[in-house]
Write a structure and sequence with these properties.
With about 230 residues, the chain is mainly β. The protein is about 5% helix and about 25% strand. Strands 1, 2, 3, 4, 5, 6, 7, 8 and 9 form a nine-stranded parallel beta sheet that branches.
C-alpha cells in the first residue's frame, strides 16, 4: 500500500507544461496506433486514428512522447498501460476509453471530450485539463500530482481511494463527485462547484471559498448521518 500523503493544503504547485516541439519539428506518424506501439515527435490528426467502424481499438501498451494530437478519436478504445509523456491533446475524443494503469506525465488536454474515461490505478503527474467535458471520469485508486482543472466539467467524477496532491480547480464543475477514502494534500478547490459530493470528509484541509461552504457542509451532514428535523 502506498504511504499516506504528507503535505497539507497550502497553495498547490502548478503543473509543469509539456515539452512539445514546434510544429515544424514534428512528423506525421510513421505507424498506426496499435498494441505496444510508439509515436515519438508526431503531429497527428483525426485521419491518424483507428477506424471506428472496425469496433473499439486495442491500444494496450501504446506509448506517445513529445507529440501534438489534434482531433484524434479514440472513443471506447482499450488502452491499458498507456503511456503519454510531454503530449498535448486538442479537441480529441477519448470518451469511454479504458486505460487502467496508464502513466501520464506532463500532459495537457484542451477542449477534449473525456466523458467516462477510465484511468483507474493510473499515475498522473503534471496534468492540465482545460475546457474539457469529463463527466464520470474514473480515477479510482489513481495517484495524481500537480493537476489543474480549468473550466472543465467533471460531474460524478470518481476519486475513490485516489491519492491527490497539488490539485487546483478554476471554474470546474465537480457536482456529484465521489471522494470516498481519497487522500488529498495541497488542494485548492476554490471556484469549483462542489454540490452533492460523496466522501466530503476527505477534503479535510482543502481550501474552499465562502460561497462553497453550504454545499460542502450539506455533504458533510449527509455523510455523518445528522438529521435536521
Amino acid at each position: 500500500m502506498a504511504p499516506p500523503l504528507r503535505r497539507r493544503s497550502e497553495n498547490p504547485r502548478p503543473p509543469t507544461a509539456p515539452g512539445v516541439p514546434r510544429h515544424e519539428q514534428l512528423d506525421a506518424p510513421g505507424s498506426e496506433l496499435e498494441t505496444d506501439g510508439l509515436w515519438d515527435g508526431v503531429l497527428a490528426g483525426a485521419e491518424d486514428g483507428p477506424d471506428l467502424t472496425d469496433g473499439p481499438a486495442d491500444l494496450g501498451g501504446m506509448e506517445i512522447r513529445e507529440s501534438l494530437l489534434q482531433g484524434l478519436r479514440l472513443s471506447s478504445a482499450r488502452a491499458d498501460s498507456l503511456r503519454l509523456t510531454d503530449v498535448e491533446l486538442r479537441d480529441c475524443d477519448l470518451s469511454g476509453l479504458v486505460a487502467d494503469g496508464a502513466s501520464l506525465t506532463r500532459v495537457r488536454f484542451v477542449g477534449c471530450r473525456l466523458t467516462g474515461l477510465v484511468l483507474s490505478a493510473a499515475r498522473l503527474t503534471d496534468i492540465s485539463f482545460e475546457d474539457c467535458h469529463a463527466d464520470m471520469i474514473n480515477l479510482r485508486m489513481a495517484r495524481l500530482a500537480r493537476v489543474r482543472l480549468s473550466g472543465t466539467r467533471c460531474r460524478q467524477a470518481d476519486f475513490h481511494e485516489a491519492q491527490v496532491s497539488d490539485l487546483s480547480t478554476e471554474g470546474a464543475d465537480l457536482r456529484g463527485t465521489n471522494f470516498e477514502r481519497a487522500q488529498l494534500a495541497a488542494a485548492d478547490l476554490r471556484g469549483a462547484d462542489l454540490e452533492d459530493l460523496r466522501g466530503a470528509s476527505a477534503l479535510r484541509g482543502a481550501l474552499i471559498s465562502p460561497e462553497q461552504v453550504l454545499g460542502v457542509g450539506l455533504a458533510l451532514i449527509g455523510e455523518t448521518g445528522i438529521r435536521v428535523v
